[in-house]
Amino acid sequence: SHLSSEVSKMTDTERDQIDNDAQMYMRTCHNSIKLLKNEGTLHLCLLFLHLIVVCEQLNTHRDNVIEMLEEYLKVVCKLYSEQRAIRVKRAVDKKRM
């Protein structure tokens, strides 16, 4: 065949060069694939870190909202107690009259 006659005309130096080029190409492809894997891993790590930050922000926000609600409830309870004390005092004063 035509291909086998071309191969037999090649010198050992040419064959060695083809082997070297093929090995270099395969190494380059392998390294490119590794870079893609690492890049994907890096993107996942960055996404994970972002999610951690967002979760921390949400936790901080939740804690602040809870603290604000607790403070508001204290104020409401204090007002209720004061109003109830006034009502009880008035009831006692009415009985004394």
Automatic annotation (TrEMBL):
Family in the record: Belongs to the syntaxin family.
Topological type in the membrane: Single-pass type IV membrane protein
Keywords: Coiled coil, Membrane, Protein transport, Transmembrane, Transmembrane helix, Transport
Protein name: Uncharacterized protein
Range of residues in the leader sequence: none
Main location per the UniProt record: membrane
Localization of this protein: Membrane
Any one Gene Ontology cellular component term annotated for this protein: membrane
GO biological process, one term: protein transport
